[in-house]
Amino acid sequence: MKSLSRTKRFLAVRASLRVARLLAGVAALALVLAVPAMAQSEEFDSYKIRIDGFWAYSNPSGSVQGSADNGTVDLQKDLGFNSYSTLAAKIDWKFTHKNHLYFVVNPFDTSHQTVLTRTIVFQGQTFTVGSTTHSSLQSNLYAPGYQYDIIRRKRGHFGLAVQIDLFDASAKISAAAQTANGGRSVSASGSLLAPIPVAGPEFRLYLTNSPKLFVEGNVYGMYFGGYGNFVSTVDTVGWSLTKHLSVNAGYQLGSRLVVTNNASSDRIGVRLTQKGAVAGLELSF
Prior knowledge:
Elements: H1 2-34, E1 49-58, E2 61-65, E3 73-74, E4 84-94, E5 99-106, E6 109-115, E7 120-122, E8 125-127, E9 132-153, E10 156-175, E11 186-206, E12 213-223, E13 228-240, E14 245-259, E15 269-284
Antiparallel strand pairs: 1-4, 1-15, 2-3, 2-15, 4-5, 5-9, 6-9, 7-8, 9-10, 10-11, 11-12, 12-13, 13-14, 14-15
């Protein structure tokens, strides 16, 4: 059943990424056909510094696994994690007409208290059924990156980005002393620092011959065999309030991090999928 559930989640994320890739391809084609290169005036997407701040309402799912454990602990079924609010930010320096350097920060920090419906093992510690546990999971993302705009027209751009996703993750489970766990407190924790390089397309397309309404999106991912993998896509619609300020809203179709556990390096295993609504402001200079 676990294998079937994981397969369903993987297929859902893969379907989301197919939609995002299709949107990126349509945007690139629209940029080529809609605005001839010889007929350029000032670009709607012209800036030097851009700062994005987003609020996200995310629904996390997945599991954690101790560095030497065989079984996994499910974030929703075992620990009761549910939707939560978080913030994200990006600063983009477009230092030439088509070249960008940027930095992204995306924190993930949540905790929950629940009564276990089955016995679980994490980092070699056993937490028995009926125990009241307090669990916390943190997986902060720091990502420096570079982007090159292959196509840049008056009504938008289509580019390729490469970034290093540095995941600083930790998990802790504790249970208070009670009859269910033999009258003693039990606690276990683990952490990992996972640098994962990812790459993929990114686009912005203004839907009319005006800088007001636009759509944008990205698809990033990479696979590393036995170490892990990461895929993500975020797509939004934006409305420019002024030349320098816009509001954006959309959906994170899928963000899937997989890092396998390793006993020799004391690395815990993490499978984390997030999806949900996003909204925010964008400031451009």
